[in-house]
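Quarterly update from the structural biology core.
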Amino acid sequence: MTVALVGNPGVGKSSIFNQLTGVGVEIGNYPGSSVGLLSGGSCFQRERVEVLDLPGIYSLEDGTETDALVRRVIDDDAVTAIVAALDATRLERNLYLLLQVAEYGRPMVAVVNMIDEAARRGIAVDTARLEARLGVPVIATSAATGQGIDRILPAAVLEARAATVEVPYDHHVEAALHSLARTFGVDRRTALQALQGIGDDPELLETAGAVAEEIGRRHRMSAGQIIATNRHNHARTIADETTSSAGGAGAGIDRLLTRTVPGVPILVGVLLSMLLVVFLVGGVLEEYIIQAFQFFLLQPLAGLDLDPLVTEVLRSVVLALQSGFGIAFPYIFTFYILLSLLEDSGYMSRAAFLADRAMHRMGLHGEAIIPLVLGFGCNVPAIMGTRLLATRRERIIAAFVITMVPCSARTVVISGIVASFVSLAAAFSIYLVVLVIVVLTGLVLSRVAPGPQLGMVLEMAPLRRPRPDMVLLKSWLRIKEFLYIAMPLLLASSVVLGLLGYYGVIAAFQTAFAPISEGLLGLPAYASTALLFGILRKEMAFETLVVLAGTANLNTVMSGIQLYIFALV
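Predicted structure, tokenized:
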């Protein structure tokens, strides 16, 4: 038995999913798709129920890979019921997607979430009237408090039914639907999608395309625009009939956060403050963890009388663990805690709105700021986070740009070398150089990357107080990706580099690349070895350089220009 959760971004769908399934979830791709979705298990009446958390979307017909995935899952007979999650504070906007899902005729349940948030804003939803208008069970919930969550699975398994609500389309569209359905023997939904260029039947699409052109000429707007307008109007009608409002709050704060002034300065201040906290807290944690590894593992290992090869392998493993848990982990975990706080507060959607114009010049949308900011913590989960972007074109551009964002490991090198031995201004100038490279790369990719650049519809999540449990859960899910993906690679690469050093391969490499290190870059010959370590383990470049130079005071053996070039490379 399989239940699929569908809804707009920010409706609390993932919070509902976590309440239904717990933390033990899997991230995978639906067969035939590269878009990831979450799946988890629950139990009802001694039977396992698989719950799918589909990516948040605004429409089933935007032409993106994500929309295609959601359509396939909804139309999959293996899915027993659809649970449509709605935001009680934005019912009209959310009903647009529900009306599209209803056209599939699949058993479904509507969940009106954030009912507590709506009450605080003076919004009341008449769930009984809404149930009568939609023709499906409607459950009022609050994922924040757990209210009504226990009713979702019983309703999905026992009460789910096809919706009776039907959008009254323009009479020309209705005539076209009847004609296509009669001629090709298809249902209303298939004919409706064919008018918008969606489907697999070439003959149907060709005929529907001609009909859509004729409708467009009559109305001076495309058939797709007419269909969308009709749906929005019907969603507004249903929302007006089933909700009442005593006036909202917080509009003044929203205006401050979304206007260019003071919104952009606030955004810059938030990001700089976040990075400052990451550096301060991460630095303190790093110091204690590094000392613990040194005292409890590295020093005892050095005192053991073991075979040199075994000692080198064990030392490489310990150094890898020290680098991962002592250098990278403190910065990354602190960063994810802060990022989850911003997300749960609702601020990230406002940051995406403010960044949209600048991102658009690089072929991206404002929502790409989330994986880009993630890149300052670790590039691996940041690149994985590009799944939230709508098109393959955007994912390619964002992933390429993220590889150039200074992660926490590179920050260790920059702060440990340039800020310590040259100047703080020189360290910030490296970030400025990287920023220029990132922007130029994005500008070039926006012109050469294949695929169309689509528009963006952004739902503003309500401002709210972050929940500590959700912040910790989101942080754990993200740091888990680092531990399960990056740490094994770190261990393997450390052992390989240790063996290469033991058998003299690194020394040969240093000799071979001395012309580049000394001639082209103007660095000491041993710096090439440190750069080699930095390819796979960026944070170890600093430590390796200290070991090879024979002193922690690098300014006594290298000039300021050499230290700057090393950190920049």
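DSSP finds 25 helices and nine strands in the chain.
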